[in-house]
Design a protein that fits this description.
single chain, mainly alpha, 0% strand, 24 helices
Length: 445
């Protein structure tokens, strides 16, 4: 039976004094926190995930079109198609690597906004491509933007959300990525491949405009000594009438305890390396399920099977099912818990949205920017290896071989979930961090 995150005794278990928590009467008089502005800030941020999902599967309808292109400069061989599909993941790995610096240097919000530059440039290159190099560079740049947002957005969302809605909001990055993929599949039925790239510019522009008016993460601002800005940001997020004193004190105390930079010696402390190791393994195992090569080559996969519908129609159906699954996960995550969904659901309801959410929840504040970038780097290097080799393996051994491998990994994931993944439902980020600081093994069950 899982032990509570709060309520343990002992000098190593540092929780926050209950006297700081406002009484029910005070909450009634002053007002409870409102979530409407948090929802707006989250929506502005996760438009970056929409672009990421859109760009990730861009090759699904485009590769078949270019393989039959009459332009010799754009006609793709199987090897060129594998590079066109996989180079996105190399860009995403580079984006994750840059996030290790930018997340803590610029902050979560500005890092997300910065991703618009390579994203817009990448779409422009692919829309006006006159040769293979422009297609590959465009894919790399959109991948870089995707890797950067994949590291920054979950952290930003988790740091501005209240515990009661953090699970639902934590699923929105994956939800918007799936919606972006579905939009690409749907538009692929109507638009030629160049106009698909032009259409990808729209969400990037809207994201920049909306984020301009959103606050930065209060936790990031406090970590930079900008206490007044942090208080203003938290007040804006929670609403004018909300009592934020206890929450602000809670965040401030946690930030002050971790105000210095983390040394390599401290990185060997179990309360630092355990959550980072769990997050890294989750990202690694998530990619080994094969989701990225399947999505990148979805239409070519359907082309090689005896399906009744057209491959482009099948791809759109897959996108719709994924969207519905993530919606169900978003609604049930704060009620059923993260771990239950990892056990009983498929990728889109479990290992898709929940691994991103858990990464942002369990990483310690002092290492959150660096560690989230490291998780994305590992994730997309793994995705590159799988995506680059997928078509070659299929051509050599048939479609069944990689899918047997993906199925075996899913069994490994079940064991890993049962042994190593903690339940974080209903806990604040400070409570989760205190939980890991105890050094007890109870959190693994």
């Amino acid at each position: 039976m899982q032990e509570p995150l709060l309520g343990a005794e002992g000098p190593d278990y540092d929780t926050f004094p209950e006297r700081l928590s406002p009484s029910p009467a005070e909450r009634t008089r002053v007002g409870a926190p409102q979530n409407r502005r948090v929802f707006l800030a989250t929506f502005a941020a996760v438009l970056g995930n929409f672009s990421f999902g859109y760009a990730l599967v861009y090759t699904s309808p485009v590769i078949p079109a270019l393989e039959h292109s009459l332009d010799p400069n754009l006609s793709l061989t199987k090897t060129q198609a594998s590079w066109f599909g996989s180079v996105f993941t190399l860009g995403a790995a580079a984006g994750g690597l840059s996030a290790m610096v930018l997340n803590d240097l610029l902050g979560r919000k500005l890092s997300i906004m910065f991703s618009a530059v390579p994203s817009a440039a990448g779409y422009a290159l692919m829309a006006g491509a006159r040769g293979l190099w422009m297609l590959l560079l465009g894919r790399t740049l959109t991948g870089f933007a995707g890797g950067l947002t994949a590291a920054c957005i979950p952290v930003y969302v988790s740091e501005i959300a209240l515990p009661g809605v953090r699970g639902a909001l934590g699923a929105t990055p994956q939800l918007m990525a799936v919606f972006g993929s579905l939009s690409l599949y749907a538009l692929g039925l109507l638009l030629p491949w160049r106009w698909l790239a032009v259409a990808g510019e729209g969400p990037v522009v809207i994201m920049i405009l909306l984020l301009t008016f959103m606050p930065n993460s209060p936790r990031f601002l406090l970590s930079r000594g900008r206490d007044k800005e942090a208080l203003q940001a938290l007040a804006w997020l929670r609403g004018a009438n909300a009592d934020i004193r206890w929450e602000f004190q809670q965040i401030q105390d946690n930030v002050q305890r971790q105000s210095s930079r983390m040394s390599w010696a401290e990185a060997r402390d179990p309360h630092i390396y355990r959550p980072i190791t769990i997050a890294l393994l989750m990202r690694f195992l998530q990619q080994l399920t094969g989701i990225t090569p399947i999505l990148v080559y979805l239409q070519p996969i359907f082309n090689s099977t005896a399906v009744l519908l057209l491959p482009e129609d099948d791809a759109a159906i897959v996108g719709a099912v994924r969207l519905l699954s993530v919606l169900i996960a978003a609604v049930t995550m704060d009620r059923a818990g993260r771990k239950v969904l990892l056990f009983v659901s498929g990728y889109a309801m479990g290992w898709g949205p929940i691994t991103w959410l858990l990464m942002s929840e369990i990483l310690p504040l002092r290492a959150r920017g660096m560690a989230s970038g490291l998780c994305v780097l590992v994730s997309w290097l793994t995705a590159f290896a799988l995506t680059k080799s997928f078509l070659l393996v299929v051509n050599a051994f048939g479609l069944q071989v990689p899918f047997f491998f993906f199925a075996a990994i899913c069994l490994v994931n079940l064991v890993f979930t049962g042994c190593c993944v903690p339940e974080t439902k209903g806990r604040s980020l400070e409570q989760i961090e205190s939980f890991f600081r105890t050094g007890r093994r109870a959190f693994l069950h």
